[in-house]
Amino acid sequence: MLRFGTDGVRGVALTELTEQYVADLGYAAATVLSLNHVVIGRDTRESGLVLQTALARGFAAGGATVELLGVTPTPAIAFAAAQRGCAGAAVTASHNSYADNGVKIFGIGGIKLTDDQEQLIEATMAAITPQSSAVPVGAITESIAAINDYRNSIEGLVPSRAFADIRIVVSCRHGPC
Questions:
Q1: Which secondary structure element, helix H or strand E, spans residue 106, and what is its range?
Q2: Angle at CA 52, nearest 5°, toward 50 and 53?
Q3: CA angle at residue 116 from 112 to 119, to 5 degrees?
Q4: Neighbour tally for 40: CB within 10 Å
Q5: pLDDT for 82-132, tens place per residue?
Q6: Other Cβ atoms closer than 10 A to 108
């Protein structure tokens, strides 16, 4: 079984990090953290949509209402969770190989999980059956409002024309990290 590392769970997509594993992870997190609402975003990896769907199904089976943000930078997911007073999750492996993927879970308010919370989620995952995460109870919806709110917030932090004479380098490696 994969375990939480420094920032979430990562592994080879659809081999180590399977749909069932990710669904169980969502179910266990919803149960342990008593989640009512969670926002989920993802990067552009090919496995992202499949894993986002499995994660949403698991959170919903645990009773949470799920708001899918689509392709979204990880900081925007934490921002959306903070703005909505809910938990968040990013389906991303950041700078890891394209074959990899991962899941980073934010606690209520968009904050990093504690080591104790991660250990409880792992213990819960070890005890659940695949059927536990199979049937959604909470609703699953899609929303683009969160990314617009995040963009507006970032734009509001910078004075007009502040970057007029500055060059910006963009990394297009694996998504909107």
A1: strand 100-107
A2: 65
A3: 100
A4: 28
A5: 999 999 999 999 888 889 999 999 999 999 999 999 999 999 999 987 666
A6: 18
What tokens does 148 get?
Answer: 């617009």
For the chain, which domains are there? 9-157 (3.40.120.10)
- In the predicted model, what is the mean pLDDT of residues 48-70? 96
Provide DSSP, 113-153.
PPHHHHHHHHHHHHH--GGGGTS--S-EEE-SHHHHHHHHH
User: Active-site residues: which are they?
Assistant: 94
Question: How far apart, in Å, are the Cα atoms of 109 and each of 7, 9, 63, 79, 159?
Answer: 17, 20, 18, 8, 27
Phi, then psi, of 37 in degrees rounded to 5:
-150, 140
